[in-house]
Amino acid sequence: MELVALLQSSPVAFISVVTLISLLIGSFLNVVIYRLPVMMERDWQAQCAPDSSEHESKEPSPFNLAVPRSTCPKCRHRISALENIPVISYLFLRGKCRSCKTPISVRYPIVELTTAVLSALVAWKFGFGWPALAALVFTWCLICLALIDFDTQYLPDSITLPVMWLGLFASLFTLFVDLPVAVIGAMAGYLSLWLVYHLFKLVTGKEGMGYGDFKLLAALGAWLGWEALPTVIFFSALVGAVIGISLIVIRGRDRNIPIPFGPFLATAGWITFMLGDDASNFYLNLLGLT
Known about the structure:
The protein is mainly α. The protein has twelve helices and no strands.
């Protein structure tokens, strides 16, 4: 109880504790980002595999978020707890495997630090209480979704749908928006991109985005409310267009290679969530509507 009282009375203590815990969460998010798509693909392969006694006799090795233990992809050295301390272990090992000296991707500490920084901002904005806890979970889920989509062009239902339901649940207590606004936001978020998808397909004969994008925007609508959706769509489309054109011009990227839209949606959604009316006002001023 003394710790709770301290966190309630001291914003600095609360932000510090959230930052430290979020470093550990960031380490876990690295696991989710890598393993969840593999788990999904294994599940799809199992469902599509021929139904035969020979196939059934071969039990696949367990693979989930807990097992097997993390190892070096080259030498299979098992990573110990001391080698898995967020950021510190990476610096201590100088970014290399302790056994074979193979370079470790710098993305791991970047994800950990990004999670910690964004979580600290959430703690600073909302302070100690249920809104902060809900906003932290929302932030962590968006980080996962953005990076999984960036890597694989998947937006797993196992994350997007719980995020949407959690947003609707939070609206029961009006943590951020009230229930009618959240429900309309979820409906409008899904249907708006659904319509864009089918119109684009009707005109071009191509699929411009996936159904996961519809569900992600529905989740954002549940958290932010329907009134924030134009701001989210505008900024995500703007940033996506700028980055897409830059990749084509600077790197010579094939324009027929799709660019995942999820990271832009997640980024625009989080910024709009944190800035609130300031984001909408900026959007309206940019369009000259105020």
